[in-house]
Amino acid sequence: MHKVLSLDVSSTTIGWSLISESEGLIKVIKHGHIKPPKSDLSLARRALKSQYLLKSLIKDLKPDSVAIEEYVTKFSKGRSTAKTIVVLSVFNEAMTMACIEELDKDPDRLSVLSIRSLISKTFDEKITSKEECFEFIKKIPSFTVNLNKKNEIKKETYDEADAVAVGISSIIRSNNGKRFTLQ
Questions:
Q1: pTM of model > 0.70
Q2: DSSP letter (8 states) at residue 152
Q3: How many CB atoms lie within 10 A of CB 71?
Q4: Which of 70, 141, 135, 56 is nearest to 102 (CA)?
Q5: Helix axes 112-123, 155-174, angle to 10 degrees
Q6: Using one digit for the tens of pLDDT, what is the confidence trace for 76-133?
Q7: Are strands 108-110 and 181-182 parallel, antiparallel or unpaired?
Q8: Are the CB atoms for 22 and 14 separated by under 8 Å?
Q9: In what order do the strands lie in the sheet with 2-8?
Q10: Does pLDDT of 73 surpass 70?
């Protein structure tokens, strides 16, 4: 059995999932999120404290590998600013360094488009948006949708679902051509 810790990294919530693959069966073992410290600290201190939290998670979960959604490498009109790109870059690289320190392996990096494409092709689903990807992940029996007091989906659940998509895609890419079943 191979276990992948997958991450969806941002400066406000780091979604994570631990996914196993064995003989073509993919299962979400656990999923959750890390809350980086609030922005009253310097960017470096927030990233460093988040590294400590991730290292602790890696020690607890003992994954065989790690996969991370690649951060934005270009500006999306109306969605990204230089500051956003810098903050995302710092957090992504800090989490990458934590993974290297704990596992002595570089994480598998996947772009959003690769994630959607790999899942679409493997499971015969049309996934072209974040919303369609979330709807697909929600159907996985071992994924839990968490609700808030107003009975609405918690914001962090979306980050956790993104992390699950990263992990599934990493498994698919590392086993090129293999068919999978979600458990």
A1: yes
A2: S
A3: 19
A4: 56
A5: 70
A6: 566 667 788 888 999 999 999 999 999 999 999 999 999 999 999 999 999 999 999 9
A7: unpaired
A8: no
A9: 108-110, 65-69, 2-8, 14-22, 25-34, 181-182
A10: no
Q: Which residues fall within 8 angstroms of residue 133, CB to CB, at 6 or more apart?
A: 115, 116, 119, 127, 161, 162, 165
CB-based contact 5:61 (threshold 8 Å):
yes
Helix runs in 62-174, H state only: 82-103, 112-123, 130-138, 155-174
Q: Estimate to the nearest angstrom the gap between the alpha carbon of 40 and the chain centroid.
A: 25
CB atoms within 10 A of CB 39: 11
Beta 65-69 vs 25-34: how paired, if at all? Answer: unpaired
Q: What does the block give as tokens for 112?
A: 């959003």
Residues 6 or more apart whose CB falls under 8 angstroms from that of 121 comprise none
What the chain holds in terms of domains, given with CATH numbers, is 2-177 (3.30.420.10)
Q: Which helix (H) or strand (E) holds 110?
A: strand 108-110
